Amino acid sequence: MKWRSCAGAALAVVLLASTSSAALADPLAPTGRWSAYSRAAAQTPPMGWNSWNAFTSDLDEDKVMGSAQALVDTGLAAKGYRYVNLDDGWWLKRRESDGRMIARAARFPSAATADGATSFRPLTDRLHGMGLKAGIYSDIGRNSCGQVFTSTFPNQPEGNVAEREVGLYGHVDQDIALYFAEWGFDLIKVDGCGVRGLPSSDKRVKAGEYRAFEPIIDIDSLGRTNIVKVRELYEEVGRALDKHNPDGDFIFSLCLWGSADVRSWGKDVGAMSRTSEDISPTWGRMLHNLDSVSRRALYAHPGTWNDPDMLFVGKGDFGLEHPEAARSHFALWAMVNAPLLIGYDLRKASPALLDILGAREVIALNQDPAGNQAVLTFDSDEVQVFVKTLADGGKAVAVFNRTDAPAEVILTAEQLKFVASADVDLTNLWSGEAQRFKGERKLQLAPRQTLLFRAKGSRRLADGIFLSEQPGAVNPAFDGVITPIADPIIHRAQPPWRGTRGFGERPRYGGWGGAQADRTPFDQELAIAGRAFDTGIGVLGNSRLEVRNAGFRRFTAIVGVDDSAVDKARVVTFQVYGDGKLLARSKPAKWGQAPQDLDVDVSGVKLIELVARTTGQGNADPVTWGDAALRR
Ligand code: GAL
């Protein structure tokens, strides 16, 4: 029993360091309850339009309402694009007498009121009358991103130091009540620049322009970031949103650009969460943002989505003179369940652009009710294969050429978890063209092309589903990462806002070592004592996974310490809980010992919890739930 108390002590310390006080004393203790965020209106990824990529902060009522009208007139709204989101630039100031936020009525005439208090209610009423939803923008600190980073852009807050403090800090309840209860917004994007860019050493702070906020985020350093504090501030906003939206019809959008280890905890706090820096209309930055979500399939579920940032379809490298690249960007965002937020001046959208943004079959993949983010089943810096399991049991597959040269790709039935000896039917979702193969099919790709198919075949697991096929139903409630590590396998592109000044991009988004579908937490093949598994869940020891069970009768897995473990002496015990009760446990397992079969009756169980307990301090080594599956 000694190993147990050790683990308890180590984890209690962890908790103090990485989660809020509301968390349990022992994060491995079963709760019988799904803990990922699912309170709000995002059972499928949010869709709509946002002003930033189209206009930056140079926005006004005509531009916003023109784009809203275009959503309706073009039929995009009917296809699901409902949110019309104001980004940075809507605010004028915070009224000193009572702290009320004042909208920029010179740019939004309908917001003007006789007493100068301003109200966005007429604007949100009009949007609601058009069948749309309305989104607003703020910052978790006292000051805004525009003030901190792009102060030459138009529509920066005005007035004295206090009046220019337009962010939520110190005003959370007041602002959320105003934006949601009084003004009627349905979504808020909360940025983080105010807690990042105004140290007392900043020359604008020294000049008395802004109050100092000693940074709690350093996007370049997890070590210099106060993850607990950042998370607490966002949780406070979440509570205010719950309070002022009793109908639950709201979306909380976190904008922390992958910093503060948010790629691990965003799923517990909001409905969508940015995983990387801002997208730019360049191929390299699109790859960077895509890579920041593509190995995070287990961190997105119905109710909470990874957000690789808004769409740039129609602009720059994704302009219509580059149709393959434009379609790739859209298809990949659809496959990884990204929120689909258009960033284009829709008043000027051409039919060819609308064909891409409005592609029904592609949107349907994104909005599939099972909510399974695509899993990478072939990975390289050149070509990738993403496979997404749909609610009807079928598959969608994206075969992606990242390079500027033509590419040949062999798609295999195994990659789709289909039987190699049976027919696989592919339907091309852009052209409608059908083809059939057995075993494997050679595909030719143009530079930057993504071939996108629906696939039907004979499932390898005839009587059930592998957990790695349904990441939307598997939640790493505690993934065992005690000390966050920056993810080294994200495409490093030149940031256009810095060019080649400085060193270039170092790995800096936390998440490395997190739970993975079909690979270890460090992107190795799953293997126990020399037996490899192409299917399963890889996670660190001292972890707890929650698995939703919709009527399956057995849980089966082959478990053990993964061959990639460094500490050969640690002992791990695997436990399976059903609705909070222990159903099965493995014998204590060590590195190099034969894998153990688990076959557990889960009839009638709604929530299964998979716990891997081990001893020791800090991040434990990888363990493998090989072939983990739910069976009928
Ligand atoms: C950035 C954010 C962008 C946009 C911008 C506004 O921090 O990532 O999406 O909102 O601020 O200033």
The beta-strand count equals 31
Q: Name the shape in a single word.
A: globular
Helical residues, percent: 10-25%
The total number of structural domains is: 3
Ligand roster: beta-D-galactopyranose
CATH topology of the largest domain: TIM Barrel
Q: Kindly report how far apart the N and C termini lie.
A: 35 Å
The tally of helices reads 13
CATH class of the largest domain: Alpha Beta
Looking across the biggest beta sheet, what order are the strands in?
9-8-7-6-5-2-1-10
Mean pLDDT reading: 95
Second CATH tier, the architecture of the largest domain: Alpha-Beta Barrel
Tell me the strand percentage band: 25-35%
CATH superfamily of the largest domain: Aldolase class I
Alpha-beta content class: alpha+beta
Q: Over the alpha carbons, how many angstroms does the gyration radius reach?
A: 24 Å
Query: Biggest sheet: strands, sense, closure?
Result: 8 strands, parallel
Q: Which stretches are poorly predicted, pLDDT < 50 over at least 5 residues?
A: 1-23
Can you lay out the helices and strands and say which pair or pack?
Layout: H1 2-18, E1 47-50, H2 52-55, H3 61-73, E2 83-85, E3 91-94, E4 101-103, H4 121-129, E5 133-139, H5 145-149, H6 172-182, E6 187-191, H7 203-206, H8 227-244, E7 251-254, H9 262-269, E8 272-274, H10 283-294, E9 305-307, H11 323-335, E10 340-342, H12 351-357, H13 360-366, E11 375-378, E12 383-389, E13 395-401, E14 407-412, E15 423-428, E16 434-438, E17 440-445, E18 450-456, E19 464-466, E20 474-478, E21 516-517, E22 526-528, E23 531-533, E24 536-540, E25 543-548, E26 554-561, E27 572-578, E28 581-585, E29 596-601, E30 607-614, E31 622-631
Parallel strand pairs: 1-2, 1-10, 2-5, 5-6, 6-7, 7-8, 8-9
Antiparallel strand pairs: 3-4, 11-12, 12-13, 13-18, 14-17, 15-16, 15-18, 19-31, 20-25, 21-24, 22-23, 24-31, 25-30, 26-29, 26-31, 27-28, 27-30
Helix pairs in contact: 6-8, 11-13
Bound molecules: beta-D-galactopyranose.
Beta-D-galactopyranose binds at residues 52, 87-88, 145-146, 150, 191, 193, 255, 257, 278.
Pfam family, one: Melibiase_C
Organism: Caulobacter segnis
Signal peptide: 1-25
